[in-house]
Structures are given as C-alpha cells and as structure tokens.
Amino acid sequence: MSVEASVSSKTKDQLMLAIGFASINAFMLAAMGLFAKLLGQYFGPLEVTFFRNGFSLLALGGWLICARQLTMLKTKRPYAHLFRGAIGTVGIILGMYAVSVMPLAETTVLLFTSPLWTLLLAWMFLKECIGPYRIGAILLGFTGIVIMANPFDGQIDLPVLGLIAGLGWGFLSGAVDTTLRWMGATERSTTTVFYFMVFGTVTTALHWPFAEVQPGGFSWQALLIIAGLGMTGLLSLLAKTQSFRLGEASVIAPIMYTMIVWAVIFDYVLWDKIPTWNVIAGAALIICANLVILYRERQKRRVSALLSENRGDGCPNA
C-alpha cells in the first residue's frame, strides 16, 4: 500500500470515528433531556440542574486529580468564568423547566435556535461580519419558531412559559457560545467547563433549603434517574470532545440534528406523543437555517484564509 493510500485510509477511519462519536453525543444529549424530564416529576428545575452539574463536577474533578492536571485550572480571567457560569447556569435551569412542561421534541427544536442567537450576538458584541445570506437564515429560523407556536388560530399551541423558557435556553446557549469565542484565545476548554460546573453546582445548592421535592424524591427510582442524568451528561461531554478532535465542525454539526429523532422516539414510546404538523414544519425551517449558517461560516473561513494569504485583511460578504 502506498503512503498516499495509507494516509487516505487513516483519514477515512478518523472521519468515521468522528461521525460515530458525534452520533453518540446526539443520543446522549437526547437521553439527558429524557432523564431531566423524568426527574422533573420529583424535583424543581434548580434541583435538576444541581444534579446535572454536580455529578459531572465530581467526575471531572476526579479525573483532574488522578491525571495530575490541576494546573489546568489556573486562570487569569476569573470574572469571565463567572459571567460564563452565570449565563450557562440560568440557561440550563430554563431548559430543565422547559422539558418538564413540554414534549422533548419541541424543547429540542427550541434549543436548536442557539446558532441563530450566536450569530446575532457575535455580530453585536464581537463585531463579526454578517451578510445577506446569514441574515436570511436568521429570518428563516425565527419564522420556524412562529410556525411551531402556531398562533394563527388565535391560540398558541405550546405552553407560553415553556416556549419562553425554551427560547431563553436557546438564547443563553448562544450567549455561552459567543462568550467561549471571546474567552477561547486564553482559556482551555477543560478550565472553562470545570469553573462552569463549580458555579452551577454551588449556586443551585444554595436553593436546597427551599427545594421543590415531591414524594419519592429520594427513592431508588429517583436515584437511578439522577445517575442516568449524570452519566449521559458526562458521556455526552466525552463523545463531543472526541468527535471534534477527530473531525471538522462542518461534518460534526449536522449530525447533532439526529437529537430530534431520538426526542421524537422518547416522546412516542413513553408519553404517546407525536409532533404536530406545525412542529415538524417549524423544526425543518430552523434546521435548514442552521445548515445555511454552517455552510456560510465554512465559506467565510475559506475566503478569510485566502485574503490573509494575499493581503492580510478582509471581511467577506457572508
């Protein structure tokens, strides 16, 4: 076998592994939403957030100690981590509330609005270029939200507070992504994740004296659900890290939309819930908008690379 063929084979194997890990990540995220919804029968959204963050914090902290990597926790930007932790924690709390009052499929689709918000926030605060294609994609995505809500007959199909919480989750997830772009130049991903988990665990723990605990909250069944929530969250993080290490974002990101398939399956099997026509149509528009944004981001990077080679500056019409 020639050197070129060997390299090509290795690249193909890495691509397949990246796709495999991305698929695992999508399933684990959907399963995490399932466990969060089940746990919502026993606890309020703040308590569910506490369990989600606390389990992952113990796992990550244990790994850092065993691997003797505590030096990775050094940071020169504590206030940036504080801000990222605050918006991320509030976002998860909103998400946990949304899954408790709405079907998983609808909540998952609202989370998919995150790239739309990221694009707007990066344009507003990071001064990133934005052109007609991506503006059109944003409008398309928000049209999908309106169709999902289906206010045309004078009554919104989805619970209003659930819809607001789901959109808030998507918005704050986009805000987190924008913040990570801002912090990425100086902060490691492991450092950022660790301090986010610390903030989320400590702040939600403060609510325990006022906790919403339903009968059976500390039964074996509830404890198994808590373990499932923590394990799926941790496995999702590991699979996501591996997928982006082995493959490009342009390959990985579209696979994340298989989350909606698993969410629909969980809704149907456990709650006999099937998405209505407007949810399917709205989801299709939001996913299409995200794919357009992803494609234009990829094109923008290629043009920017060429401009930097030739002149060193530029803002392509994206």
Record keyword descriptors for this entry.
mainly alpha; single chain; globular; 76% helix; 318 residues
Write the layout of secondary structure elements.
Layout: H1 3-39, H2 45-66, H3 78-101, H4 104-111, H5 114-125, H6 132-149, H7 160-183, H8 189-205, H9 220-246, H10 249-255, H11 259-271, H12 277-310
Helix pairs in contact: 1-3, 1-9, 1-10, 1-11, 2-3, 2-8, 2-9, 3-7, 3-8, 4-7, 4-11, 4-12, 5-6, 5-7, 6-12
Brief rundown of the structure:
By secondary structure, the chain is mainly α.
Would you write up a description of this structure?
The protein is mainly alpha-helical and 318 residues long. It has a domain at 1-42 and 213-259. It contains 12 helices and no strands. α3 packs across α8 (189-205). The longest helix has 37 residues, at 3-39.
Shape descriptor reads globular
- What is the CA-CA span between the terminal residues? 42 Å
How can the largest sheet be summarized? none
Give the beta-strand count: 0
Q: What share of residues are in beta strands? A: under 5%
Uncertain regions spanning at least 5 consecutive residues? 3-7
